[in-house]
């Protein structure tokens, strides 16, 4: 039994070491993307894997009547919402779902932050982010009836507001908004990389199995003597 178990444990440790190297490369890539200066977002098709976390510029107007409220907490644990608003590009008419930033519960209603409902054609700068769906089936669904969303299912959001949107979000930078709400610059990179610890754990278990096997064999040999 010891040999196959040790082989499995060693295989798992090597796999975790490879995952660690991949994660380091991913974090370095995303950090390098964020460090680049903003560029104009291409008007054609965008390959998300190449543009994720790139800073981009757009010119167009917000469709405030179609905004979406994504449940979110601020850094200090305050409950609130990310305000996601369709943005119509001036040059092409293409729609993008733009995360304008965070508001607390008191400013969820647009009527309480009318100054921040910027009208007309504007220039915006933000970061390209990919959408996401719920991680587990037992989690609650997005509530379309109240327009409160728990995760960024972009396809559902676009269908709910009856728009054809690009398949990625754009999170705006921290440029101040009239009235102070929403607060932009909410982009966070938090990618855990615990694979080195897992590698050590699996390797340690393999070594422990071998040690137990050796001491067991030595004990049996002494009994025979």
CATH architecture field of the largest domain: Beta Barrel
Distinct helical segment count:
4
Categorize the overall geometry.
Answer: elongated
What class do helices, strands and sheet pairing give? alpha/beta
- Mean of pLDDT: 87
In which range does the helix fraction lie?
25-40%
Strand content: 15-25%
User: What name does the CATH topology of the largest domain carry?
Assistant: OB fold (Dihydrolipoamide Acetyltransferase, E2P)
Number-wise, the strands total 8
The CATH first-level class of the largest domain comes to Mainly Beta
Widest sheet: strand ordering: 2-4-5-8-6
Which stretches are poorly predicted, pLDDT < 50 over at least 5 residues?
none
**Can you write the helix and strand succession as a string?**
HEHEEEEEEHEH
Distance between the termini: 25 Å
């Amino acid at each position: 039994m010891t040999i196959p178990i040790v082989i499995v444990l060693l295989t798992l440790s090597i796999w975790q070491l490879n995952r660690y190297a991949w994660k380091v490369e991913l974090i370095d890539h995303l950090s390098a993307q964020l460090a680049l200066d903003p560029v104009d977002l291409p008007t054609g098709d965008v390959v998300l894997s190449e543009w994720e976390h790139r800073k981009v510029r757009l010119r167009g107007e917000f469709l405030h009547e179609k905004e979406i409220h994504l449940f979110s907490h601020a850094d200090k644990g305050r409950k609130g919402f990310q305000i996601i608003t369709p943005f119509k590009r001036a040059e092409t008419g293409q729609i993008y779902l733009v995360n304008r930033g965070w508001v607390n519960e008191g400013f969820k209603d647009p009527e309480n932050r009318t100054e921040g409902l910027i009208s007309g054609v504007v220039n915006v700068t933000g970061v390209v982010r990919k959408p996401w769906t719920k991680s587990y089936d037992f989690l609650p669904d997005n509530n379309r009836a109240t327009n409160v969303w728990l995760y960024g299912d972009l396809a559902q959001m676009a269908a709910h507001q009856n728009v054809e949107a690009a398949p990625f979000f754009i999170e705006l930078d921290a440029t101040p908004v009239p009235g102070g709400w929403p607060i932009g610059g909410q982009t966070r990179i938090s990618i855990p990389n615990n694979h080195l610890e897992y590698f050590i754990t699996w390797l340690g278990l393999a070594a422990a199995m071998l040690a137990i096997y050796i001491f067991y064999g030595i004990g049996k040999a002494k009994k025979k003597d």
